[in-house]
Amino acid sequence: ESGQISVTNFVRVTSTECAQIFNIYPRKGAILAGSDADIIIFGPNSSFKISSRSHHSRSNTNVYEGRRGKVFIVILI
Predict the structure, then answer these.
(1) C-alpha 13: how far from its chain's center?
(2) Is 50 left (phi over 0), alpha (psi -120 to 50) or beta?
(3) 43 shares its domain with 14
(4) pTM of the prediction?
(5) Do 65 and 49 contact (CB within 8 A), yes or no?
């Protein structure tokens, strides 16, 4: 949101370099033919309410219940 890091660098730091550290690159951490990459879609102008009902978890509580988030994220696996 602050613009201190570009989207490209965010992906590099959080995906590509992590996969390289764990020696699973390019099987993970890259969108290439033959890779098993998970795709994340960011909605930078979205907001959402945090709720335990909307999480994919066995827990029925959330310490952030009722707070608002600024960026909506969809993970395609």
Answers:
(1) 12
(2) beta
(3) no
(4) 0.56
(5) no
Torsion of CA 45, 51, 54, 57, to 10 degrees: 120
Domains in the chain, number: 2
Q: What is the dihedral of CA 65, 71, 16, 75, to 10 degrees?
A: 70
Residues 32 and 42 in one domain: no
| Three-state secondary structure readout of 12-34 | HHHHHHHHHHCCCCCCCCCCCCC
Quote the domain boundaries for residue 15: 1-36
User: Which 8-state DSSP code applies to residue 53?
Assistant: G
- Name the phi and psi angles at 53, rounded to 5: -70, -25
Percent of the chain as helix, strand, coil, to the nearest 5: 25, 20, 60
d(CA 74, CA 4): 22
pLDDT mean values, one per 10 residues, the chain (77 residues): 82 89 92 81 80 80 88 67
